[in-house]
Amino acid sequence: MKRKPSTEATAAWIRLMRVQSRVLDCVEQDLKRAGFPPLAWYDALLELSRAPSGELRPVELERQMLIPQYSTSRLIDRLVDEGLASRRECKIDKRGQFVEITEAGRELQKRMWSAYSAAIEKYVGSKLSDADAVKLSDLLDRLGCSCGEMKLPPVANVNESTPSR
Amino acid sequence: MKRKPSTEATAAWIRLMRVQSRVLDCVEQDLKRAGFPPLAWYDALLELSRAPSGELRPVELERQMLIPQYSTSRLIDRLVDEGLASRRECKIDKRGQFVEITEAGRELQKRMWSAYSAAIEKYVGSKLSDADAVKLSDLLDRLGCSCGEMKLPPVANVNESTPSR
DNA sequence: TCAAGATTGATGCAGCTGCATCAAATGGGG
DNA sequence: CCCCATTTGATGCAGCTGCATCAATCTTGA
Q1: pLDDT of residue B34 exceeding 80
Q2: What is the pLDDT of residue A1?
Q3: SUPFAM superfamilies annotated for this entry (chains A, B) (predicted)?
Q4: Domains defined along chain A, listed by start
């Protein structure tokens, strides 16, 4: 029960952990310095703004963002507190609800993307050619695809970009 | 002030965030299921066990692990509470102290490496050839090196492996 | 020598995460 | 039709993180 990873694999693992934290930290710091909330807020606002009518069930948001249920619930709380989204009751399923992005939410999402995209360019885009970026994506995809052979365990805060241009 | 990252760079960024969280989560879960503490503990124990006499100044540990000062301080608290390390006063600098790994600490580090290395193999090693692992490391290194042009800001929980084989 | 500044480490507070659990509503089988 | 399992969402609690700050000690320079 004690397989030994090659030193190459171990090195890749360490790089993956270190580099991701560093880069994420840099991007988050840039956003914070620009006066913006955490990336998770952006992710949620983006998903909401993309939804057909600007609203989603919390469950949908949860699945899109790959974060646990309680995390979604509280993130929505904060967005609502800040007037970036609002809760609407769901008439066809009284357990559920809809979360709708507000105008302020849409605006914030757009303003954040401006800073966010600049950060991506600064910390990723400018360091890699497009070809290398593709290669990196491919290698990472091979790790990610079936990492959990389970039923999608809680994972993480991530982002989706809008072409935005 | 609004540079646009290429779609390739953006895709790579997203993969980096998503895959890292998924893989880290998988590894942490495996360790937890085996009854072990978080990876950060392992990292600290490894650094201590590697130190010439099994002891380090908290400041050294902090620099090795790339985590903020207060985080180091509290991590040491927990290790000491669990009998995995002990604090010794530093005679030459009364502000400071030494943290020394205990036998229990050394043992735990070794037992954790067994589970940890198996997880690395399971979630990384088995998915990539050695050549691909090297390529991945290289691409990641290009992102990491100068991410912070500042003075090493607080970064993250990461690990160092011992060949251990 | 002594005061100002730097270094080392701890800690109070607020916010976020994970875990477990709860309540309400739905849906399906007998 | 009713009971029970499932789905949906909220929440109390503990632990961890980041931030700001503090106290103690060391170092430097006038």
Answers
A1: yes
A2: 53
A3: Winged helix' DNA-binding domain (SSF46785)
A4: 20-141 (1.10.10.10)
